[in-house]
Amino acid sequence: MIDSGRTCLSCSGIENLTDCTVIEACKDDEVCFTHKYTHGPNYMYTPELYDVGCTNQKLCIPGKPGSVFGKRGTRRHYVCETCCNNTDICNMKSACAKPSDHKELCESTNKEGNRKCLACNGVKSFLDCTEVETCKSDEVSLTQLRNDSSFPRECDDMKNITSGVYTIYPDGFHPIRAFCIVDNHNKETWTVIQHRSTGNVNFDRDWDEYKRGFGSPHGDHWLGNDIIHQISTSTSHKLSIYLEDFNRDFKYANYSYFEIGDENRKYQLLLYAYSGTGGLTDYFGSYVNNELFSTKDQDNDRLANVNCAERDHGGWWYFHNSYCSNVNLNGPYLAGTVTNSSAMYWKDWPQQYYSLRKSTMMIKRIDEK
Ligand SMILES: [Ca+2]
């Protein structure tokens, strides 16, 4: 096997992927594939069967299980999409199996030296795995795969695109769909992390839903706290928030530094250097910088005896002094003047207690590449 070689499971007509123990070294321009099929109706017994192995197919069919994703670079290639049922894990050695069978998420190569690999049982996503083990000398770590990935980590990594929904790989190889906004004037491409313009998606959700994201990037949605953490901490990022009222007036709130911590840090918010358009006052970062994220089932706000996320019906970073918030863009979509702060609002714009028509929160790498 050559140094750059990728290994794939290689079997034909098997009923269970776990039955395949044959490993094949692929050529440089090949990727792993998993093909699932059944025999025709003439067969009395029609189990679903799998073929797995190397293929020179280069293009993916997004959303189609078993389709091959991407072409390998000169050293190695990366993911297939949805090769493995209910997982994000591709046809890699000892990784393409039932989630409960995942022993190690390393890829076998002839690399020298020991590496640390994620090692988890029963995870549905790599993002859920935090355990680490030392790989054998002929194995390479997922971290290495991630670092070497040439897939776009965020919208800013894609050139010559127009605004729309694209596949990005925040961790290097795990695909998600995100809305990208191209600002032609400033020649900047932003990744949307929150958008609301219809109110037809409920934002009164629990911790796990905010962690994983909900809604569709084509409409109202929350991208997901794990993803936002991953992107915002991969390099330095800035945040821009677009607000629009029902007169179609709009303003921007901009922060030239933005990140959120990981789940262990309760997605703690860091925001610096505010500038707003049209005299918009910073009622967000100046109040909730360093605060923890809260949802109705996880009260991390510092207001005693009140669960702000439950009371105001949205996951958010809440204010801790004597009341819950001055800004809550994940509050209920109430479309216009309301009577209290339990709404999707930005204090005092366009007026006190006004539920906005649109909000978009988007982030972009601070140029340093
Ligand atoms: Ca509280």
TrEMBL record:
Q: Which InterPro entries match?
A: Fibrinogen-like_C (IPR036056), Fibrinogen_a/b/g_C_1 (IPR014716), Fibrinogen_a/b/g_C_dom (IPR002181), Fibrinogen_C-term_domain (IPR050373)
State the species of origin: Mytilus coruscus
Q: Which residues form a coiled coil?
A: none
Tell me which Gene3D superfamilies the record gives: Gamma Fibrinogen, chain A, domain 1
One Pfam entry for this protein is Fibrinogen_C
Its cellular-component GO annotations read:
extracellular space
What PANTHER family would the database entry show?
A: FIBRINOGEN/TENASCIN/ANGIOPOEITIN
The name of this protein is Ryncolin-2,Angiopoietin-related protein 7,Ficolin-2,Ryncolin-1,Ryncolin-3
PROSITE patterns assigned to the protein according to its UniProt record, in alphabetical order: FIBRINOGEN_C_2 (PS51406)
What range(s) does the Fibrinogen C-terminal domain occupy? 146-367
